[in-house]
């Protein structure tokens, strides 16, 4: 992967904290859900309920599609990412604790304490998302401009 495009992808990942992730339901229909995430380089992590539909979907099929973007009043400033990726559960407790410890860092403006304690690795399912194909959207380079990157 070209180093400039890698830096651009990582900058977009670092600048955001919410993504829409689509998994496949048992009936074949996609299910899109908004989740918070943290990233380490190109690896993304999100959590969900132990018995959530997302967790059940991913137990059957680890393929996901996701988008990361934001609203802008200027159409030519649209930027974002979409990915085809594989999502696997984090089973190592020390990795899970480390990821949970990264989450508050995505919300530096949070000045009031959460109304409940942060969940423990036993209370949530944490998924590691490894990109397979990334589409980098950047309208500043032309209307609808995308760079397709295989990982």
UniProtKB/TrEMBL annotation:
Gene3D superfamilies: Electron Transport, Fmn-binding Protein, Chain A (2.30.110.10). Pfam families: PNPOx_N. One of its GO terms (molecular function) is oxidoreductase activity, acting on the CH-CH group of donors. Keywords: Oxidoreductase. GO terms for cellular component: cytosol. Residues 6-130 form the Pyridoxamine 5'-phosphate oxidase N-terminal domain. InterPro entries: F420H2_bilvrd_red/Heme_oxyg, Pyridox_Oxase_N, Split_barrel_FMN-bd. This is Pyridoxamine 5'-phosphate oxidase family protein.
């Amino acid at each position: 992967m070209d180093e400039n495009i890698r830096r651009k992808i990582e900058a977009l990942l670092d600048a955001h904290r919410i993504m829409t992730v689509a998994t496949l339901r048992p009936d074949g229909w996609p299910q899109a859900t908004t989740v918070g995430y943290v990233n380490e380089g190109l690896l993304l992590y999100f959590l969900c309920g132990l018995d959530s539909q997302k967790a059940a979907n991913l137990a059957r099929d680890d393929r996901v599609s996701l988008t990361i973007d934001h609203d802008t009043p200027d159409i030519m400033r649209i930027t974002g990412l979409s990915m085809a990726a594989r999502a696997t559960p984090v089973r190592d407790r020390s990795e899970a604790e480390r990821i949970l410890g990264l989450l508050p860092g995505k919300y530096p403006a949070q000045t009031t304490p959460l109304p409940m304690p942060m969940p423990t690795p036993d209370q949530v399912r944490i998924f590691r998302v490894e990109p397979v194909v990334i589409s980098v959207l950047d309208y500043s380079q032309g209307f609808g401009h995308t760079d397709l990157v295989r990982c």
